[in-house]
Amino acid sequence: xSISARKQAVVVLLSVWLCGTxxxxxxxxxxxxxxxxxxxxxxxxxxxxxESGVVxxxxxARKPLIPASNMKLVTTAATLKYLGVDFEYRTKVGLRxxxxxxxxxxxPLLGDKETDNKYGRQPEWIFEKIVLALQEQRVKEVNDIxxxxxxxxxxxxxxxxxxKDYNKWYACEVCGxxxxxxxxxxxTSNLGGSxxxxxxxxxxxxxxxxxxxxxxxxxxxxxxxxxxQPNRITVFGKCRVKDGPFRVAxxxxxxxxxxxxxxxLARAGIAAKGRLIEKAFDNDDLKSLTEFxxxxxxxxxxxxxxxxxxxxxxxxxxxxxxxxxxKKNGGWAGGRDLIAKYLSDLGVSxxxxxxxxxxxxxxxxxxxxxxxxxxxxxLYHSKNWELFRASLAVGGEEGTIDRYFNEPKYxxxxxxxxxxxxxxxxxxxxxxxxxxxxxxxxxxxxxxxLSRDAINGIAMAIIDEYTRQE
Length: 470
Prior knowledge:
By secondary structure, this protein is α+β, with helices and mostly antiparallel strands.
């Protein structure tokens, strides 16, 4: 018997075992996790043994449902397909005719606090690096500050996103030049009965209206609203000692970056004499000062581990931009088409998906658990699997599921992407068991859908079923 024939025989035998014994036992565990009160709910489950490709459990797997943030799995997987693991965002800074020019790359992690902490970088390090580069060139003043954001189109807010969420970090604007997650951090302090509000980064770009009440007992509760006037933010609530920082999305991210840059230059004694201009720029004769580089693996990780919406939306627009001959004007429409092509190329039927945005905030997205499992299975058999798996949250340890699966039996063994918007829960990834990995996808929609406990219970059922007894 040839080696390939032996392998095929092993797969057949494994398939028989999985379907004959493992399937029935796992099904009982899943039914117990779901419970009788949720059996009539609108949910879908698909579980695959990746080594054999055998489906070991499936329920409504080809029914399209709203995926919430499980959409990020599709976007990040398509990113690896179209851009590759070695892709880097490069934001360039230079001089032309004594104007300071910043050419955005669409990098969603420029000034991202979590990424900066990872690399041991201090707050505002980006501006400090620009200042140092100017000082090394003995530049005492600049004319205009020119910002080029044409790597992306001008549609910064997705039309399907709820307007009530525009001031939230997860619904921030998406721009060719992003900074600090396109948010400010708001900090309230009760100083002897007087409320002081500070913002991070230090800037007067936003106008703060202070409506916070000082209290001497009880818990602090702070919120913020944006007014119709651009970048005017009302902070309200109660503050006992200190609260924050909490993030509030700003408007016009490129202007935000340029404004903060001008303020930092002034603090360093470098005057900006001209205007802040946003326009396309030909960088052929740009005198380079510095550049900021972010590997795409960092962006994928922030999208999947921490569910950073800006990361996913920037990836979608970047896919489109780099599909264009001039590598500019990346937008949602083109990105949607490319992600749809990626799914079709995997053999996923057009009836199984509708792509609207990259992060899953839009309620117009539709996916099936079969489609999500197909993506995971394709990645599992690719050279990118370990990178992708490492980008997922880890039960009991890291990311959006660090507070779940803390028991030793489960801790560190469930690597997955969560998803939640109103009435929608999602959970897809891989369970690492004693019998090997198992890929799973769970989607639930509507008031009769699965609870978080039930969804977690399904993942734990996989671990339970394929863990060897001591």
